[in-house]
Amino acid sequence: MSVRKKIREINKIRDQLSKKNANYFDEVIVRVRSSRVREESGEEWLLARGQQLLTAQQRGQTAVKLFGENPIAFADTAIEGLPQRKASQTVRLYLLAPWVALSWTFLILGLFALFMKDAETVSLGMLLIVVLGAIALVEVLMRLTRRDPEEGVPAPPKFNLRGIGASLAVLIAIGIAGLLLQRVLPVVTVPYWLSLAIAAVGFVGQFVLLRRR
């Protein structure tokens, strides 16, 4: 059975649960789908627990009596024993973001340097800001992205005042740090041809990273 079909079966089971049992099961679902558990293993476990809960409900038993008082603790115990996704995908994302940002930065610097000699000078502090900013952007997006309990797939970012405030605080902190670093770190000269060469290598590297599985 495919992952998508398992999710549909889980949704059908949820529709047959009482309100209390459904609320309990929803918390378990969100907890498992928000973890690092492999999707196929997680959905298979959720489907089995849903079938188990539906059978117990037909016998007059509640989710609390079947799985325990705390749905989060119940899910966490199961998560520890389920296969986990490899961390390489997350590491690749954090590597790819600053790589892309630097590639575009050197491309722009190289193009400007073709017409303006002054554009061949670049601050190492500015390059560090580009790297930190790209990593911070990835972190913010990952925190704002949630999983839809109805579909089991990533949903559009959910913005709230706390999330927006945290994002602004991170960007302001990076900006302040960048201004301070630009006064400390040296300025180097990068000829236009070198900037364009670095950009070309960067874009080729992106293709390699995206192609790797």
TrEMBL record:
InterPro entries: DUF1129 (IPR009214). The keyword Repeat does not apply. The chain crosses the membrane at residues 93-116, 122-142, 163-184, 190-210. Pfam families: DUF1129 (PF06570). Keywords: Membrane, Transmembrane, Transmembrane helix. It comes from the Bacteria. This is DUF1129 domain-containing protein. It comes from Saccharibacillus endophyticus.
